[in-house]
TrEMBL record:
One Pfam family recorded for the sequence: ATPase_RavA_C
Keyword annotations: ATP-binding, Chaperone, Cytoplasm, Hydrolase, Nucleotide-binding
InterPro entries linked: AAA+_ATPase, ATPase_RavA_C, MoxR, P-loop_NTPase, RavA-like_AAA_lid, RavA_ATPases, RavA_LARA_sf
Protein name as it appears in the record: Regulatory ATPase variant A
Signal peptide: none
SMART domains hit by this protein: AAA
Domain called AAA+ ATPase: residue spans: 45-168
Keyword Phosphoprotein: no
Xref: Gene3D superfamilies: 1.20.58.1510, 2.40.128.430, P-loop containing nucleotide triphosphate hydrolases
Source species, domain of life: Bacteria
SUPFAM superfamilies (alphabetical): P-loop containing nucleoside triphosphate hydrolases
Length: 541
């Protein structure tokens, strides 16, 4: 049975209701999806939300919308000032109880102690008497009224301000209880701004009872959230994030153990409300809205979480590193083949075999071509496009006059070649590298080593390790592609995700696409080398 809770046998699981519930709550709101999604998750999890942003950006409207998610929920909202009193938040004193019984009781009906959804605007302007009582209410979900300590039904506290608490204000304990922290700004997109101006501002007053959360469901969910498992693999990701946060910049982003525990519980809740029994890597992206404490740490955390999404969420960095190892090994193999196969010039010898100025190309072992045997062939170590007249022609082998090439000197004239399989003649520039190996310069003046086609093939003792290395690299690449498919399937299985914005999902998908394309390119290179190696070693052609 799924972890999705049912209030009755006929109830629709919450993960099936979520899309419609979010759509109904967000009707007529523009660019407030993140705040609404996170607020709903916090509400369903019994957590608190802090909205940071300038006045007039629908912070109170979001609180009123979230109240609609709960069946017959009571709502309390208040704008704090320096002159606010506890009576305005927790209820006035009962004069009758004071006169008749001498008891100090508050009349809490219609005030915070009896509300399921609470919105406190400009919260930092409240005085200590309010904030201290509020801290107890958040911590213990209790309110002391006279001689009695009463449970309070608060499921969601949304606080808001256009500023953060001052560093030495003594508000750290209360601020730390506000698990989800959301930055809000004015509507940015032109089309959304136009739609907002054109709308009538009407807001839904009721939701379908089939969408709303029942009290029995909510209570059951709080217990079931605790049953969601944090797998070892996902814990390792959490621990890596914690280490990165602890080492960030000159001022580490301090996160208390309490906040870590509650943040991970929020990730468990996210998994639960998607019908999963385990926290997925995707759920950890919610930490971007839980672990910052000021604007600087928020910016740094977003950068860190973007890197996490692209490189670590689904082992992307591990796959990238393994792919880099394959490409490095292939480059090393190419270098080995270039050193062994490329035609290398010898010091020029004059009369009586004495060393003289310059270099000469040893062409004695060349396989003779043509009717009169005056032509020789050279393979390009890597095929290239050399002909402007035939831009699609990928040249693999060139033919030239043996005598002309034998008299070529470094820094001398260009040499006439004919690509095998083409009637076009090409005048190409040659050079010797620092090891005196002969290179052809392509149109971009990139050097391409040239391999002389000899009468006898290369000994198998030399070529056998190359074949073995190519086969091994192919096996490694095949394993990489299998693991990439597995991780993509995991990513797909963890979607749709209703509490994370699409840009984060797109970033992960684009990373997978880029890596898959690079693996395909490497696979193509390996296939080309496996096909070309027998030719370069003189075993065919």
């Amino acid at each position: 049975m799924s972890l999705s809770a049912h209030s009755s046998a006929r109830a629709v699981p919450i993960h099936e209701r979520l899309p419609n519930l979010l759509a109904a709550l967000g009707e007529g709101l523009y660019e407030r999806q993140d705040a609404l999604r996170l607020g709903l998750l916090a509400a369903l999890s019994g957590e608190s939300v802090f909205l940071l942003g300038p006045p007039g950006i629908a912070k109170s409207l979001i609180a009123r919308r979230l109240k609609l998610a709960f069946h017959e929920a009571r709502h309390f909202e208040y704008l704090m000032t320096r002159f606010s009193t506890p009576e305005e938040v927790f209820g006035p004193l009962s004069i009758q109880a004071l006169k008749e019984d001498g008891k100090y009781l508050r009349l809490t009906a219609g005030y915070l102690p009896q509300a399921e959804v609470v919105f406190l605007d400009e919260i930092w302007k409240a005085g200590p008497a309010i904030l201290n009582t509020l801290l107890t209410a958040i911590n213990e979900r209790q309110f002391r009224n006279g001689d009695e300590t009463l449970p309070i039904p608060m499921r969601l506290l949304i606080s808001a301000s256009n500023e953060l608490p001052a560093p030495d204000s003594g508000l750290d304990a209360l601020y730390d209880r506000m698990l989800v922290r959301v930055w809000m700004d004015r509507v940015q997109e032109k089309s959304n701004f136009q739609a907002m101006l054109s709308s009538d501002g009407a807001s839904p007053r009721h939701l379908s009872p089939g969408l709303q959360v029942q009290s029995e469901e909510y209570q059951l969910w709080q217990r079931q959230i605790e049953q969601v498992v944090l797998p070892d693999e996902v814990f390792e990701l959490v621990y890596q994030l914690r280490q990165r946060l602890d080492s960030m910049g000159d001022e580490p982003c301090y996160v208390s153990d309490r906040r870590w525990k509650k943040a991970v519980r929020l990730c468990k809740a996210s998994a639960f409300f998607h019908g999963r029994r385990e926290v997925a890597p995707l759920d950890l992206l919610l930490l971007k809205d839980c672990l910052w404490h000021n604007e600087e740490s928020r910016t740094a955390l977003l950068t860190l979480m973007e890197e996490f999404a692209r490189l670590h969420c689904y082992r992307q960095q591990v796959l990238i590193s393994r792919h880099m190892a394959v490409t490095s090994a292939l480059q090393e193999l190419q270098q080995q083949m270039s050193i062994r196969l490329a035609l290398k010039a010898d010091p020029h010898k004059g009369m009586l075999g004495k060393r003289s100025k310059g270099w000469q190309l040893p062409l004695e072992d060349a396989r003779k071509q043509g009717e009169r045997g005056l032509q020789i062939q050279l393979h390009l170590l890597t095929p290239a496009r050399l002909s402007p007249e035939e831009p699609d022609l990928l040249v693999e082998t060139l033919e030239c006059d043996k005598v002309v090439l034998g008299h070529w000197q470094f820094g001398g004239d260009k040499v006439m070649f004919h690509p095998v399989g083409s009637k076009t003649g090409l005048t190409l520039e040659l050079e010797l590298d620092s090891s005196q190996r002969l290179n052809l310069l392509d149109s971009q003046r990139h050097p391409i080593p040239l391999v002389l086609v000899c009468r006898e093939p290369l000994p198998g003792l030399i070529s056998a390790p190359w074949y073995k290395t190519l086969a091994n690299l192919n096996d490694q690449l095949a394993a990489l592609r299998t693991e990439l498919r597995r991780q993509r399937h995991r990513f797909d299985d963890h979607q749709p995700h209703h509490f994370i914005g699409s840009r984060w999902l797109v970033a992960i998908e684009e990373g997978f696409f880029t890596l898959a394309r690079e693996l395909d390119q490497t696979a193509e290179q390996l296939a080309q080398w496996q096909q070309r190696l027998p030719l370069l070693c003189g075993e065919q052609g």
